Records
---
Amino acid sequence: MFIRECMTKNPVTIEPGDTLARADAKMKAGGFRRLPVVLKGELIGIVSEYDLRRYPDFLESTLVLVAMTPDPVTVSPSATLEHAVALLKGNEIGALPVVDHGRLVGIITASNLWFPEPRPLPEWEKRS
């Protein structure tokens, strides 16, 4: 089976100049934990819920560009699921943007492939 058969096509994205608050709102609205970061249609990074947790008091004032992982590990839509699993496990990441000829066409996550996230996220700490 190939990535194109089980990836999420046309994923929700964010731009590097958007705030982490906007990224957080998009993730919560969509029920997912990461967003590909695109600039003029090209993938330049990925931002995750884990990244947002490093800036808990500054989501409104911090740009995605500051918190994102640049040049993320990617996969082709014609790659096999076995290859994607090896990349996810080998890099200890939970998702792979799917790129075809430089353009983001999808995303595949650990949950798409039915295995647990490599690093579980603790709940947001309650503030007093």
Note: Confidence is low (pLDDT under 50) at residues 124-128.
---
Amino acid sequence: MTKPASAAAPLAEPSPSFFSDSTTLAGKLTEAYLAVRNETERRATPLSPEDQLVQSMPDASPAKWHRAHTTWFFEQFLLGEHCPGYTPYHPDYAFLFNSYYVSAGPRHARTERGLLTRPGAEEVTAYRKHVDAAVVKFFHEADEKTLERLVPLLEVGFNHEQQHQELMLTDILHAFAQNPIPPAFDPDWRFPASARSGDEWVTLNEGIHTIGHAGDSFHFDNEKPPHRALVGPVKLARNLVTNGEWLEFIEDGGYGTATLWLMDGFAAAGNEGWQAPGHWRKVDGEWRIMTLGGLRPIDPAAPVCHVSYYEADAFARWAGRHLPTEMEWEVAARADGLNDAFGIVWQWTRSAYAPYPGYRAIEGALGEYNGKFMVNQLVLRGSSLATPEGHSRVTYRNFFYPHHRWQFTGLRLADYGA
């Protein structure tokens, strides 16, 4: 099979358009829609029906649920609201495959998605084909003005599905990592090469910079409004922290040194028995890591991944440094000063996930997409090896709780001097 997308996406804003050079808007939308939908199926191809059912922890979801939920999104918000006469494929699917859209109605508990033995993977495939056919038919029957009005909704739908494409890989990797006989998603998979060049540090002098997305190209609502922020003086590490550096942290007793940790982090590490990053395990006295290609030896030169915010913060303190703010990261990335800013690991920042000054969620059910989560989480910047091509941009704000580490999450350091 073709490898999961792993190349770093272009840095420049805006991100590449979904839309082709087809002569009609209906043609452009059809090609964009099917390209996104086909990528989801490509990622699901190596998975057996049993693989697609498993839910290895409450934070993860079964692969078939991801496939069905992204289908429900288009059925609910596009066909259900804008296609006259459309009848839902199955009367129970809205309940089963809604995620957190309270405005869209009741939903099955997230923690129990792995109990949904039915519909099976083949039935989910039939559901996807039915909705895909209805969407394409709608594109070619709707008038141009209607389609123009729906482009913003469709762009959200495309990007929403891309987010679930990434989750499909991180969630199945977590599930495979629980298997005593570690399977491979793709036996030929390789960790993407890291670029290490230039000076060790990128210096940002004190200055006022515009942070956030400017212009009308696609962005999520949490990336706006653009605003001015004081940044610097600070130095950001040009390179990501590596496995070799993390091994030094482990060997120096980093996981057992309470003074390096936030109180909640040290409690989490103790309660969960953390002695190394997620998906690391010792085999015959040597550390190995569970990857999409199966269980592999640790590469000391590769960027460390599957670390929580708590671990990243403790490491930074052990190294005598800090984690950067998301504003510092954005300014440095805009200047093209960071190696591996995209395409390997999401990078933790020390910025709380909070609204930008003047932020307002969009109206309607889609307003529940980002704004309702703006508390108790931390911002990550960049993108990972599992992020679909074209989905990253310099203003993108990913966010997770500080104990989360099943994603491809890593870090780079910041130095504020004496």
Note: The chain has ten helices and twelve strands.
